Amino acid sequence: MAFEGLSERLQKAFSGLRRKGKVSESDIRDAMREIRLALLEADVNFDVVKTFIKNVRTKALGAEVLESLTPSQQIIKIVNDELVKTMGEAAVPLNKAPHIPTVIMMAGLQGAGKTTTVGKLSKYLMDNDSARPLLIAADVYRPAAIDQLQTIGKQLNVPVFEMGTDVDPVEIVRQGLATAKENKNDYVLIDTAGRLQIDEKLMNELKNIKELAHPNDILLVDDAMTGQAAVDVAKGFNEQLDITGVVLTKLDGDTRGGAALSIRAVTGKPIKFIGQGEKMDALDVFYPDRMANRILGMGDMLTLIDKAQKNYDEKQAMEMAEKIRENSFDFNDFLDQMDQISKMGPLEDIMKMIPGMANNKALANVKMDPKDIAHMKAIVYSMTPQEREDPDLLNPSRRRRLAAGSGRPVVEVNRMIKQFNQSKQMMNQMSKGNMKGLDGLMGG
Ligand code: GDP
């Protein structure tokens, strides 16, 4: 799987931090060194790595992280945000022409996946924009390219315009565009010739096609498996053709991921799509945030951190943590905590976001719908202030009184007290074991 090595190395850097309760500047420097090596090993461009590390370090050494109770989570968040930024923040859609047809010119080296991607993109447009595309076969140097495009056209039921291999590609494009206008095709996808490497003749031909067709998008189809070379190719094509975006192919393969992380930063041009397989539906819009999640191997953990940060009052959290450490967490805190958790949304959803949580047997029994929370609160409200602060006072006769006071059966009172004790114990372990408990839950 792509990014596997990078994911593993980054996880290692974070777990070094996770083992500590609080982190020092030197811990952060160690982690930065690990992250830097991880990126370089993943074939990320050297300058990109330099900027990346500089930005992450500045933020990570900020007071919020050093004073935070959850420094490793904060740093994961900072790294994630920087990954997203490096890859360009938001997905960049295709440009659309004010009048039909929208013209998309595809360029790239031989074998990058250009012809395949023309097919995939036409399918994408048909599925998502009810498009009626026309494909133009302008790769006249590789005879098989035209056959290949026709096969794809048949498979997808998309018309292919071709004039064989003896006509100048610019002329083919001219006539192809005229045909598209006649037939009122709303999209035209031009499959151009590739070479083994960038050469002047190819670039001149592509420039001529560009001048004639005024494409709304010039997409470079670039092979992620080639790592740094893919970045150089993107740089070369962009300098010559001023491309509007990149389709990064073969991300399903065993690529180290460097190209995905470097192209935007090096060329200033967005990756618009990624290819993740040979089949016609294996094309996806490139979302920098989702890619960052994938690289960090965190699933939706980051959404959870985000939610927790938005809803958690840091001061209150500090006090809570202090109580957990002193083992003086009581039923008043339990009430507060339930309020905090309910603010984050349905508990099942929160649980599902934590990697490994779905398989956690201990937690499978924790059911908490809003009604349960209301019942638990009713039971706590029936306690005397002394009982709330000292749950050990809750002997069987007091429990019967709570049941009567809250209108809940005694078994439920018992279950809640048991749950309270369990979670108290778990939190206490986590705080002592420096998050080890949570690591276990997270399958780490
Ligand atoms: P072109 O010379 O650039 O037109 O390249 P082709 O479209 O002929 O693709 C070259 C090879 O790469 C073919 O075997 C494709 O099936 C394969 N290919 C293209 N895109 C992808 C992709 O995203 N993933 C994988 N695994 N293979 C791909």
Radius of gyration computed on alpha carbons: 29 Å
- Fraction of helical residues: 55-70%
Write down how many β-strands occur, each being a DSSP E stretch of 2 or more residues: 8
The biggest beta sheet reads: 8 strands, mixed
How far apart, in Å, are the first and last alpha carbons?
19 Å
CATH class identity of the largest domain: Alpha Beta
Main sheet: strand order: 3-2-4-1-5-6-7-8
Question: Overview of this structure, please?
Answer:
Belongs to the GTP-binding SRP family. SRP54 subfamily. The chain has 444 residues and is an alpha/beta fold. The protein has three domains: 84 residues, SRP54, nucleotide-binding domain (Four Helix Bundle (Hemerythrin (Met), subunit A), Up-down Bundle); 184 residues, Rossmann fold; 141 residues, Signal recognition particle, SRP54 subunit, M-domain (434 Repressor (Amino-terminal Domain)), CATH 1.10.260.30. 59% of the residues lie in helices and 9% in strands. It contains 22 helices and eight strands. An eight-stranded mixed sheet has the order 3-2-4-1-5-6-7-8, sandwiched between helices. α5 crosses α12 and α6 runs parallel beside α7. The two termini are 19 Å apart. The C terminus is likely disordered. The structure holds guanosine-5'-diphosphate (GDP). The site of guanosine-5'-diphosphate (GDP) has 19 residues, from α6.
Features:
444 residues; alpha/beta; binds guanosine-5'-diphosphate; Four Helix Bundle (Hemerythrin (Met), subunit A); elongated; 22 helices; 8 strands; Rossmann fold
